Amino acid sequence: MTFARTGDSRIAAFFDLDGTLIAEPSMEIRFFRALRQNGDIPLLNYPRWACESLRLLRGGLTKIQHANKRYLSGVERDLIYRHVAAIPIFDEAISRLAWHARQGHMLVLVSGTLEPLAHIAAIALECELEARGVETRLQVSATRLEENFGRWTGKILGDAVYGPAKREATLQFAKRHSIDLRSSHAYGNSIDDSFMLSAVGHAHVVNPNKRLATLANLYDWPVWHWQHEKSLPSAMVAAAESKIQQLESGV
């Protein structure tokens, strides 16, 4: 695919995932519920999570939500493919992704969710776009977890991608891929996404709460109301697993 350029730089469209492209609850919450229902979370992980929450409490509830992954200590990484079911995507979001792809813009998911979950969503979206006659690849910048022999340790590698870290992830991606941020776009649904939105020349707000709607009005950011959900089938998860394994093996 030929990417649109301004001078020597590319143009990109950065998308938050949960609540922006995918209907709430988030993919990670859905995954956690499936793990819990199937008894895949070791019992000791609950007090470990509670202790880590107390340590992070000074940073607020948002920090606990995004930076505390102790519930995943010792959990098999590949369970993520077994427990991710159909993905509820906003149909309007797919249309918007297709529009950007047709303009030659790079598509980038910038999300605080677990990196494998973001990759599953990216590949499912690629399949849906391909069904609409649009062939493109979605790049991913998401929260990375430490692994040990195929199991997560519950520790985050680097920073959890939320708040100011989302802006930093956007800036770093732009630097690596020669992105012209002033000509680029970003989409988010929460005040937490405002850091990423302020990094680009064309910010877009999706289904905002009162705080983000006020900010959008202040900066004259367009507001999108996406309501129609399209459930991408769980069969796409199997396709995603195969494709991710190919990417990891360098095939």
Tally of DSSP β-strands: 11
> pLDDT average, as an integer?
92
The gross shape turns out to be: globular
Widest sheet: strand ordering: 7-6-5-3-8-9-10
Q: Give a short account of the largest sheet.
A: 7 strands, mixed
Radius of gyration: 18 Å
Instruction: Quickly give the structural class.
Output: alpha/beta
- Kindly report the oligomeric state of this protein: single chain
From the N-terminal CA to the C-terminal CA, the straight-line distance is 20 Å
Q: Helix tally?
A: 10
Residue runs with pLDDT of under 50 for 5 or more positions: none
Helix content: 40-55%
Q: From N to C, what is the helix and strand string?
A: EEEHHHHEHEHEEHEHEHEEH
Strand content: 15-25%
Describe this structure in words.
This protein is an alpha/beta fold and 251 residues long. Helix content is 43%, strand content 22%. The strands form 3 sheets. It has a 7-stranded mixed sheet with strand order 7-6-5-3-8-9-10. α6 crosses α10. The longest helix is centred in the middle third of the chain and has 17 residues. The chain is globular, with a radius of gyration of 18 Å. The protein starts with a strand and ends with a helix.
